[in-house]
Amino acid sequence: MKCPRQLRPPLGLALAVGAFAFLLLFDLHRRPSTCAVSEKPRATRKTPAWPTPPARPRPARCQPNSSVAAHPDFARQPLRVRDFLLHRHCREFPLLQDAPPAKCAGPVFLLLAIKSSPGNYERRELVRRTWGRERRVRGLQLRRLFLVGTAADPLQAPKVNRLLEMEARTHGDILQWDFHDSFFNLTLKQVLFLQWQETRCANASFMLNGDDDVFAHTDNMVSYLQGCDPGHHLFVGHLIQNVGPIRAQWSKYYVPRVVTQEEHYPPYCGGGGFLLSRFTAAALRRAIRVLDLFPIDDVFLGMCLKHEGLKPASHSGIRTAGVLAPSQRLSSFDPCFYRELLLVHRFLPYEMLLMWDALNQPDLACGKRTQVY
Ligand SMILES: *[C@@H]1O[C@H](CO)[C@@H](O)[C@H](O)[C@H]1NC(C)=O
Ligand SMILES: *[C@@H]1O[C@H](CO)[C@@H](O)[C@H](O)[C@H]1NC(C)=O
Ligand SMILES: *[C@@H]1O[C@H](CO)[C@@H](O)[C@H](O)[C@H]1NC(C)=O
User: Which pathway is this protein engaged in (predicted)?
Assistant: First the structure.
């Protein structure tokens, strides 16, 4: 603000450049009309890469249950808890982006169902390029889907919806429902996905449910799952036991008594990433139909398993807590360490790329010290 004079020459220059650019654009814009004959008809170019599935009727918007507000503790709950209670009964939301029918046309061995926030474009791109790449491993088909809601911010929402529409068109890997993508709505995302899978990808033998910031060693997962029967119970991950609701309001995991009176959670697997079989997915759907939704998604699945008389199990290769992710304290990381694991939480997008590249080096020699950088 001190030196407005100095702004003038660049401003003049900018105007000149702008005018030139405008002329150039105008010129370019006019040009196609002179060679329209050789152009292909526009309609053929607009054909989407994926055939669109038939439109379904839109469910009516779910109305908040205002009688929950009568509870004496309701008013002093944080907004996210009040929001959760008001909409706890809402389970039907329109699908904004669907997967192409080809997604599960052939036999799918492992379906990667990755929970992602609408704005996490870079994370999705890196997952697509690394461990989430759709391919055959040992002859078995891997498929990928991102599970997304909508941005709660009304200014952001239309923009990210356009982004997701574009990604769906290009990659055919977006399942987006019309609900606010928030931490306490992750259970809803899980429930809607399992319902979608029942009709649209029922033949997937196994599923990986996880977050978009994990590093999943999908080749190792296939080797491990090859020894399992999709028609039997399987639910493995980072097992968490002997914990209960956190009653401190400051916590991200705060769950007040108005949500549950229970002081203990059943055993469950950390939501960062867990594997389940086709059999167990069907069992979870049965429980989901009768249980009230619980705001913490991984705990909710533990409740569903318990309801069905099933137990989650631990897999030492799945670390969603307690292991040093590369970014935390180490300035470099050893791919040989990750070579043995199935899944590790908290990777930055570029770290995923480095690790994936290192693990796929044909001459990765373990035994002696090897580092990516
Ligand atoms: C609305 O909330 C009340 C009080 O918690 C509950 O009894 C009722 O079943 C709820 N209604 C629906 C549709 O979930
Ligand atoms: C979940 O999504 C619904 C639909 O968008 C919204 O009304 C509700 O407030 C959300 N709940 C939470 C806890 O964010
Ligand atoms: C799913 O698998 C069963 C048996 O393996 C088969 O009969 C059925 O046609 C398959 N469905 C689809 C949609 O591929």
Answer: Protein modification; protein glycosylation
